[in-house]
Amino acid sequence: MRRSQWRFATGPGDFVPIFVGSVLLFVSLPGFVLLLVAPESNWGVIGVPLLVVLGAGVLLGCAFIVWGIRLCASPGSLAYRLAHGRFFRC
Question: What is the pLDDT of residue 89?
Fold first, then answer.
């Protein structure tokens, strides 16, 4: 018996990566910005690992949003060109 494969996105038009990326950014970005803007001296050992984890969440969130735009954008649109790295109409 063959096991079914679990896929995160099923194909064109799937908005789940945009949703997951938005949630990751919503959760990670405020704490990341707070750690960068207002570092406290009493954070101690937890400051640097927390900054790394929140930074990874921000990067993953941005990557999921770009992946979702790549799936949802129609060819020829500005969003499609920006998500696929085609900035000019060549």
Answer: 60
Residue 29 lies in a domain: yes
Amino acid identity, position 52: V
- Total domains in the fold of the chain: 1
- Are the CB atoms for 51 and 32 separated by under 8 Å? yes
Q: Is 33 inside a domain boundary?
A: yes
Is the pLDDT at 90 greater than 70? The verdict is no
* Concatenated DSSP letters of the chain: -PPPPP-S--STT--HHHHHHHHHHHHHHHHHHHHHHS--GGGGGGHHHHHHHHHHHHHHHHHHHHHHHHHHSPTTSHHHHHHTT--S--
What's the maximum distance between 2 C-alpha atoms anywhere in the chain?
A: 58
| Residue 42 maps to a domain | yes
